[in-house]
Design a protein that fits this description.
The complex is a heterodimer.
Chain A lengths: L3 H7 L3 H9 L4 E3 L10 H6 L1 H15 L9 H20 L9 H22 L2 H4 L1 H4 L8 H32 L10 H24 L4 H15 L16 H6 L1 H14 L6 H25 L8
Helix pairs in contact in A: 4-9, 5-6, 6-9, 6-10, 6-11, 6-13, 9-10, 10-11, 10-13, 10-14, 13-14
Chain B lengths: L3 E13 L5 H15 L11 E2 L10 E13 L3 E5 L6 H8 L7 E6 L3 E4 L12 H11 L4 H15 L14 H13 L5 E5 L7 H16 L4 E5 L3 H7 L2 E6 L2 E6 L1 H12 L5 E3 L6 E2 L3 E10 L15 E9 L5 E10 L4 E10 L5 E8 L8 E10 L4 E12 L3 H6 L18
Parallel strand pairs in B: 2-3, 4-8, 4-9, 6-7, 7-8
Antiparallel strand pairs in B: 1-3, 1-5, 9-10, 11-13, 12-13, 13-14, 14-17, 15-16, 15-18, 18-19
Helix pairs in contact in B: 3-4, 3-5, 4-5
The chains are: A mainly alpha, B alpha/beta.
C-alpha cells in the first residue's frame, strides 16, 4: 500500500517544477569557471568562422604583392642556399650521407612550420585585442586558424621539396619513397601541436607582461640552433653537450621527418614518445591558461 | 516558466588603475598567496566608487558595484547614465568580452551585441567575403549567412560594389554594410550601444526602424545604451539609470529620463581657470567660458526667453599658427543639437583671445541647454573639444507665473501675426 507521504515524494510539486525551469539558463556569466572548462564544444560550433579566418589569412597576406604565394617558395629556397654556404661549405658539417640540398631543405621546411605557428599564435591576444574587445567568440579559434593556415603554407613548401627530390632523383638516379612516408602526417600534426601549445602559453603570459614578446623574438631563432636543422643528430654522437639537443622535444621530430622521407637519421620510439608527451602536456597546459586568460585579458592587455 | 531572460545578480567589476609594472607583479603574487591559503582576495576589500571628478586615494576602483536587475522577454531596456556611470562596463560583461569581479549574469538565448559595427572587417577582402566573415564573428553559421545574403546586400544598398575590397568603400557604405550584417543576426537578445550615431539621416531612420521591428514584430529582447534621450524615450519600454556604478533607479523610461536630467542639470553657467584645475591641452588652454545675461547689468542674472545671451570665451592659442576656428554646438539636455555656430579668428600665438557670441532673445525655448565647444586649426584639424562644458537654463517667466506650460518645439521665436 502506498502511503500518503510516499505519494507526495513521487509526484513533484508544481512549485518545484517551476523553479527547476527557472534554473535552466543557456549561459551563466561568472567571475570564475572550473579549471577544466575548455569550451571545445563551442569551438566546434564556430567551425565556420575558423575556416573563414584561414581563408582571410591566405587572401589578405599577399594582397598587393606581385609574387603572391610564390613568396612561400622563395623563402625556403634562399634559406637552403644560405645553409649550403654557411654550414655546408664554410663549417663543413656532414649531412648524414644525404644530398645537402635535400638535407637542409627538409629541415627548413618542417622547422619553419613550427616557428611560424609559434610566433603567430604567441601574438594572439595582443594582435587581436581590438576585435576581442568588441565581440565574443571562442578565442581559441584564432590560434587554431593560424596553425591551419600555416599548414597550407607548409603544404606548398612540402610540394617544393618533393619537386626538388624528383629533380635530384633524375640527376643522381636516387629516388626516395617508402612506407615511412606514413609517418609524415603524424610529424606535421606534432609540430603544429607543439607550436600551438607553446604559442598559446606565451600569448596568455604576454597579455599582462610584455616581456615574453621580446623573448619570443630571438628565442625561436636560438631554438633552431639546438635543433638538428642545420646538422644531423649523429654529428653530436659522443659529444658532452648532446643532452641539450636531446632534451629539445623538437629534435626528434626534425630527425624523424628526415627519417620518414629519406630513411636516414637517428630516431627512437623513446625520443619520439618524449616529444609526443611534451606536445600533449604543452597543449593541455596551454589551453588551461588560455581559457583562464581569455575571460579577463581585456582589462590588462 | 518565468519569462525572465536576463538576470543580473550582485554584479561588480573592479578595475586596477595605472600602468602595468612591477607593482602589478607584487600584487599578483600577494593575491596568489592569499588564494593558496584559501583566503579572500585582499584587494577586493578596497577600492572606491567610480566618481571621476574627485581624485582618488586607492589604485582600485569599482566600475560596477552590486548591480541587480532583471530583463523580461520582449522588453526593450534603455540603460542611461552619465559618462563613467558603468554603462559600457555592464555591456562588456553582458557581451562576454570581459568577466565580472563578483556576482553573475544568467541568460536565456543567444546574445549578440552591436557594440561597434564593422568588427573584424578586413580592408583587403571584398564586401562579399566580409559579410561572411563578420557574420561568422557575430555567431552566425555559413548557411545562415547565405540564406540572408541578398537581404543584407539589399539593406546596405551596395549591390554594385559587393566584389570590391571594402577599403575602396566610402565610409558611409562601410558603415551601412557593417550595420546590415549585424541587423540581420537573429539573436534572442540584442545589445545596442550608440550605433545609431552613425550614417546619414536616412540610414539612421532605417536603423531605428529595424531596431523597432526586432523588438515589436519578432518579440526579441533589446538592451539599448544611448545618450540620446529622445531615442530612449521612443524605443524603450523600460529603463535603468546607472550612477557611479550602481543602479540608481529603474522604471518607465520617461521617469528615468527625468531623474537623469534632474541629476545632470547641475547648472554650470561659468568656468574660470584656476591654477589647480586647467581645461585644455597643448593646443588651446581655456581661461574662461560663460553664459552671460546680456540684457541687464548683472551678467549672472537668471535668463528669460526674451533675454539676449552672450557666450563669452577667453583662451590662449598655444599652436604655431594664429588662425583658429572656434565654434560651439548648442544642445538640449536631452541630447538634441539645436544649432552650431563658429568662425575663424586671428588669435595671436601665446596671448589671450577673448570672443563673444550673441544669441538673440525670443529665440530659444524654455529648456535646459548645454554647450559643446570645439577648436580647430585653419585646416580644420581638431585642436580641442569640450563636451558639455556649460549648462544653463532658460525660463519663460511670464508663462510660468500665469500660463499652464511650455510652448512646443525647440525654438520659441517671436513671430509677427496680423489680420489681412
Amino acid at each position: 500500500m502506498i502511503t500518503d507521504t510516499e505519494q507526495i515524494k513521487n509526484t513533484p510539486s508544481p512549485a518545484l517544477t517551476a523553479s527547476a525551469n527557472d534554473d535552466h539558463w543557456d549561459e551563466i556569466i561568472r567571475p570564475e569557471t572550473g579549471l577544466f572548462e575548455l569550451n571545445l564544444k563551442e569551438v566546434w560550433k564556430y567551425r565556420d568562422l575558423l575556416m573563414l579566418f584561414v581563408k582571410r589569412d591566405f587572401i589578405a597576406q599577399y594582397k598587393q604583392t606581385i609574387l603572391g604565394p610564390i613568396w612561400h617558395i622563395i623563402q625556403p629556397v634562399f634559406t637552403t642556399i644560405m645553409f649550403l654556404l654557411v654550414f655546408g661549405k664554410i663549417a663543413n658539417i656532414p649531412t648524414d650521407g644525404l644530398h645537402p640540398i635535400l638535407f637542409y631543405m627538409s629541415g627548413i621546411t618542417i622547422w619553419s612550420y613550427f616557428s611560424a605557428c609559434l610566433t603567430a599564435t604567441s601574438n594572439t591576444f595582443v594582435a587581436n585585442a581590438g576585435i576581442f574587445g568588441k565581440v565574443y567568440f571562442p578565442r581559441l579559434v584564432i590560434p587554431l586558424s593560424t596553425v591551419m593556415s600555416n599548414m597550407v603554407k607548409f603544404g606548398i613548401q612540402f610540394g617544393l621539396l618533393l619537386a626538388v627530390m624528383l629533380w635530384l632523383g633524375v640527376q643522381t638516379g636516387k629516388f626516395y619513397f617508402g612506407i615511412n612516408w606514413l609517418l609524415i602526417p603524424v610529424l606535421v600534426v606534432m609540430m603544429g601541436g607543439l607550436g600551438l601549445g607553446l604559442g598559446i602559453i606565451i600569448s596568455s603570459l604576454t597579455t599582462k607582461y610584455r616581456d615574453f614578446t621580446v623573448l619570443i623574438g630571438f628565442g625561436v631563432q636560438l631554438a633552431m640552433y639546438v635543433t638538428p636543422v642545420a646538422y644531423p643528430l649523429s654529428f653530436l654522437e659522443g659529444k658532452s653537450y648532446k643532452w641539450v639537443v636531446d632534451a629539445n622535444p623538437l629534435s626528434s621530430v626534425v630527425e624523424a621527418f628526415r627519417f620518414a622521407l629519406f630513411n636516414e637519421g637517428t630516431v627512437s620510439i623513446a625520443s619520439l614518445g618524449y616529444s609526443f608527451l611534451f606536445m600533449i602536456a604543452s597543449l593541455f597546459f596551454g589551453m588551461l591558461i588560455f581559457s583562464k586568460v581569455e575571460r579577463s585579458f581585456m582589462d590588462t592587455v | 516558466m518565468s519569462d525572465t531572460v536576463i538576470k543580473v545578480e550582485n554584479l561588480s567589476k573592479q578595475y586596477r588603475l595605472g600602468q602595468v609594472g612591477s607593482s602589478f607583479l607584487s600584487h599578483d603574487i600577494n593575491r596568489a598567496w592569499h588564494k593558496l591559503r584559501g583566503k579572500e582576495d585582499p584587494y577586493l576589500k578596497i577600492g572606491e566608487e567610480n566618481d571621476r571628478t574627485t581624485k582618488r586615494n586607492s589604485d582600485y576602483v569599482w566600475a560596477l558595484r552590486d548591480i541587480n536587475f532583471e530583463v523580461k522577454h520582449g522588453e526593450v531596456l534603455g540603460i542611461i547614465g552619465r559618462n563613467g556611470a558603468g554603462k559600457s562596463t555592464l555591456l562588456k560583461i553582458l557581451s562576454r568580452t570581459t568577466k565580472p569581479t563578483t556576482g553573475n549574469i544568467k541568460i536565456k538565448g543567444r546574445v549578440a551585441s552591436l557594440l561597434e559595427v564593422g568588427t573584424g572587417f578586413h580592408p583587403e577582402l571584398s564586401g562579399r567575403d566580409n559579410i561572411f566573415l563578420n557574420g561568422a564573428i557575430l555567431g552566425m553559421t555559413k548557411a545562415e549567412i547565405k540564406s540572408k545574403f541578398d537581404e543584407i546586400v539589399d539593406f546596405a544598398g551596395v549591390e554594385k560594389y559587393i566584389d570590391t575590397p571594402v577599403k575602396r568603400y566610402s565610409s558611409g557604405m562601410y558603415v551601412r554594410l557593417a550595420f546590415a550584417v549585424a541587423a540581420h543576426l537573429e539573436p534572442e537578445i540584442l545589445i545596442v550601444d550608440e550605433v545609431l550615431a552613425v550614417g546619414d539621416a536616412e540610414f539612421q531612420k532605417k536603423a531605428l526602424g529595424k531596431m523597432k521591428d526586432v523588438s515589436t514584430k519578432d518579440g526579441r529582447t533589446v538592451l539599448f545604451v544611448s545618450h540620446n534621450m529622445i531615442a530612449v524615450e521612443t524605443l524603450c519600454t523600460s529603463a535603468i539609470l546607472l550612477e557611479n556604478g550602481s543602479v540608481f533607479d529603474e522604471g518607465i523610461p520617461g521617469l528615468m529620463i527625468k531623474h537623469y536630467i534632474g541629476k545632470n542639470a547641475d547648472l554650470k553657467r561659468g568656468y574660470k581657470h584656476e591654477s589647480n584645475n586647467t581645461l585644455g591641452n597643448d593646443n588651446i588652454s581655456l581661461l574662461y567660458a560663460a553664459i552671460e545675461n546680456a540684457s541687464v547689468a548683472d551678467k549672472n542674472e537668471m535668463i528669460d526667453v526674451k533675454t539676449e545671451i552672450d557666450v563669452r570665451l577667453i583662451f590662449i592659442n598655444k599652436t604655431k599658427k594664429d588662425i583658429i576656428s572656434v565654434g560651439f554646438d548648442l544642445k538640449t539636455i536631452k541630447g538634441d543639437t539645436i544649432f552650431g555656430s563658429g568662425n575663424k579668428f586671428i588669435c595671436p600665438i601665446g596671448e589671450e583671445t577673448e570672443l563673444t557670441c550673441r544669441i538673440p532673445g525670443n529665440f530659444l525655448n524654455n529648456d535646459t541647454y548645454q554647450l559643446f565647444f570645439y577648436f580647430h586649426s585653419d585646416e580644420m584639424d581638431p585642436l580641442l573639444a569640450l563636451p558639455d562644458l556649460l549648462t544653463f537654463e532658460i525660463k519663460d517667466l511670464e508663462r510660468e507665473s500665469g500660463y499652464i506650460g511650455k510652448i512646443n518645439g525647440f525654438l520659441r521665436p517671436q513671430l509677427i501675426w496680423h489680420f489681412d
